[in-house]
Write a structure and sequence with these properties.
Elements (H helix, E strand, L loop, with lengths): L3 E6 L3 H13 L3 E7 L4 H10 L4 E3 L2 H5 L6 E4 L6 H10 L3 E5 L6 H13 L4 E4 L7 H11 L5 E9 L4 H4 L13 H16 L6 E9 L4 E10 L5 E7 L5 E8 L3 E4 L11 E8 L2 E8 L2 H15 L8 H20 L3 E2 L1
Helix pairs in contact: 1-9, 4-5, 5-10, 8-10
InterPro entries: Gfo/Idh/MocA-like_OxRdtase_N, Gfo/Idh/MocA_domain, GFO_IDH_MocA-like_dom, NAD(P)-bd_dom_sf
Keywords: Oxidoreductase
Pfam families: GFO_IDH_MocA, GFO_IDH_MocA_C3
């Protein structure tokens, strides 16, 4: 079977632990090259580990390789725009880590570059490729939990102070902060699971004065039909990655919403109706499904990817509103 040839721009842990192995598992993709900014030895080590044909000591050299069809960009957030645009200009299809940009304006510039160069660009919200979320939407549509009134999405992990000194997630100049890192998942889930766009948001952010980032954020969303939603993101709390949906007849809890891969790919859905709790187990390889989906779209020249750029723009618009709410300490329109 013919396969899309992938190159990886950077050697971040997520690339080595998740995406590169996922590409090797994919039925329609293969990873052929990796690049670092300057360290050829590091690139060669990763290439050897995953049996890649090529290792480069600059991102430009990888983008100049005519034998690469698509690239994965796991660089720090502040570099997403620059290297996505450069990749598009070289005719490479792109899977870029979330958040696509630091602002909606940046994301729009990236979308424009992809459109002008006829390449596909997709934001790497891998969690949504796990089939548990489609099952959740089926349960909602069935009416089993009644009319949805509320959703809460929480994503957090504890980052001690000694780790923040060297972790790019806590570096303001590199696009750090809990909303950019983990809150974006909750925002995406609220919008896509409910299949609705919030009207307004108020976000309370706890600022880490040592690093200039918001280390914990709680966002309160309202919708035109009266629904409410809450997004929680934090570097100050223990691991949590779940969402809960409450309706007039029952509720749904998804306790492994964003990282079921940590549990071998098993997603769980707890449905509570009165005093009765039903648990459904849903298996999936979300990183592999993500790679296969975009690779298939490239083969078919199909612009209808799951994470459309229009959806990405909407997510960035809401993230912009969240940061504007923190800065102005008020409710703002989304």
């Amino acid at each position: 079977m013919e396969k899309i040839r992938w190159g990886v721009i950077g050697t971040a842990n997520i690339a080595k632990k998740q995406l590169i192995p996922a590409i090797t598992r994919a039925r329609n993709a293969e990873v052929t090259a990796v690049a670092t900014g300057s360290d050829i030895e590091k690139a060669e080590q990763v290439a050897e580990q995953f049996e890649m044909e090529k290792a480069y000591d600059s991102y430009e050299k990888l983008l100049d390789d005519p034998d690469i069809d698509a690239v994965y960009i796991p660089l720090p957030n502040h570099l997403h725009k620059e290297w996505t645009i450069k990749a598009a200009e070289k005719g490479k299809h792109i899977l870029c880590e979330k958040p696509l940009g630091l602002t909606m304006d940046e994301a729009e510039q990236m979308k424009k570059a992809a459109d002008m160069n006829n390449v596909l660009l997709m934001e790497a919200f891998m969690y949504y490729f796990h089939p548990q979320h489609e099952r959740v939407k089926e349960i909602i549509t069935s009416g089993e939990i009644g009319e949805v009134k509320y959703m809460r999405a929480s994503h957090s992990f504890l980052m001690p102070e000694d780790k923040r000194k060297t972790n790019i997630r806590a570096d303001k100049d590199k696009g750090g902060g809990s909303i950019y890192d983990v809150g974006c998942y909750g925002i995406h889930a609220i919008r896509n699971v409910l299949e609705d766009e919030p009207e307004s948001v108020f976000v309370h952010g706890t600022k880490d004065e040592n690093h200039g980032i918001e280390s914990t954020s709680i966002g309160y969303f309202t919708f035109t039909d009266g629904k409410k939603a809450v997004m929680e993101s934090s570097f100050d709390m223990t691991n949590k990655n779940e969402y809960e949906i409450i309706g007039t007849k029952g509720k749904i809890l998804v306790p492994r919403a964003f990282r079921p891969d940590v549990q071998g790919g098993e997603g769980l859905i707890h449905v509570t109706i009165g005093d009765t709790v039903r648990t459904e187990s849903v298996q999936g390889d979300q990183y592999r499904f993500e790679v296969e989906h975009l690779s298939e779209a490239i083969f078919n020249k199909d612009e209808t990817v799951v994470h459309t750029l229009e959806n990405t723009m909407d997510n960035m618009r809401v993230i912009d509103a969240c940061y504007r709410s923190i800065a102005e300490n008020r409710t703002v329109d989304c």
